[in-house]
Amino acid sequence: MNKADSERMAGILEAMGYHEAAAELEADLVLYNTCTIRDNAEQKVYSYLGRQARRKRTHPHLKLIVAGCVAQQEGEALLRRIPELDLVMGPQHANRLEALLTQVDNGQQVVATDDNHILEDLTTARRDSTICAWVNVIYGCNERCTYCVVPSVRGKEQSRSPEAIRREIEGLAASGFREITLLGQNIDAYGRDLPGITPEGRRQNTLTDLLHHIHDVEGIERIRFATSHPRYFTERLIEACSDLPKLCEHFHIPFQSGDNDVLKAMARGYTVERYRRIVNRIRERMPDAAISTDVIVAFPGETDAQFQNTLNVVEEVGFDQVNTAAYSPRPNTPAATWTNQLPEAVKVERLQELNTLVERVARQRNARYAGRVEQVLAEGVNPKNPQQLMGRTRTNRLTFFAAEEPEGCRYSPGDLVAVQINSVRSFSLSGTPVQ
Length: 435
Ligand code: SAH
Ligand code: SF4
Hints:
CATH architecture of the largest domain: Alpha-Beta Horseshoe
CATH superfamily of the largest domain: tm_1862 like domain
Shape: globular
Largest sheet: 5 strands, mixed, barrel
CATH topology of the largest domain: pyruvate-formate lyase- activating enzyme
Structural class: alpha/beta
Radius of gyration: 23 Å
Order of helices and strands: HEHEHHEHEEEHEHEHEHEHHEHEHEEEEE
Number of domains: 3
Strand content: 15-25%
Bound molecules: S-adenosyl-L-homocysteine, iron/sulfur cluster
């Protein structure tokens, strides 16, 4: 989501006439889009800012901006810490960058962190890829997971209208994009704040309705979405994903902990049993589906046995990919105030143990691709080998393959290529194109 925000802000700057500088320490305007999900993410920005603040003393024309979630969390305190800053702007203000910069040009030091209705995006994002695009569908989060800073920095849920989303996707298709990923912190909440009940009394404008609404946009070959919340994931959604051909067989469903008491303390609102049922239902309908997840280890009070339950779920479900993290206390979150915090050594040890298991499980899962022919959407040239293209399977596996076939057929980014997989690693595949 931060990448998507960065691309929108870069688009605004380009429309204003800015272009990319040769180096970070040569730019006339520097904007850091920050993350505060864990403390180590937050600390990074302070070291970057220190260097730029020193440069500003000799280059007073430099405009220095902190955007994103650290900006939202710290607000005015950032100005006290780094008086050289021109603008501090929370993630809900990303689309207002131009107006905020006008205030800076008028000589003001600006802090934009008030609750803000996010304007429908009128600018064109400057996207890093020419093939795959992020599309925000719901901003903010109304959940209250006890470890998580997101609701306090990204604000209340706000869904974009299905019409605006479809218009953006049509525009992307017209510019040559082939794949879109719909984004929301809790994407299953999409549409709750929009009006509409069907004659049968069912809520309209759910994520499933949205998928049906956008599915036929011509030129878009693949549709993904993230992040799914196990509390709200529905049977209708699984059916839509298996019925609609462009929907890729990849689900990102964080389970966070494999222990019901820990899940309760996290206020996640589901049990391990419910999580297993979701996985089983997906696999009944789509046996080859890839499932990825997020896990937190060493949540306050987590016992060895509870941690073992997490390992058991990782092993038993057989995830294709797992984002792992040690619990990090965050400002304005309940869990940060609890007295049963675990020592750093336990965090490090559990994280290592989990990562070793994750790698083994991912390697076992990847073994199923050996010898198979997979449809790969070429996204670009392999930076380490210009003779190769790289792309992803429908199940989101990174795949490298020769750009040119022995018969002389040449592939380019944007092509859907049938690739025979002949080499399998833990986190990527390699293969050769087949006719
Ligand atoms: N909205 C998504 C996740 C957003 S944050 C969801 O509900 O799943 C991305 C991931 O960061 C989370 O899934 C969680 O695993 C991790 N995370 C969030 N807060 C954390 C914290 N305080 N310490 C460690 N990891 C955290
Ligand atoms: Fe954070 Fe929970 Fe919202 Fe995800 S659902 S962003 S973990 S509060």
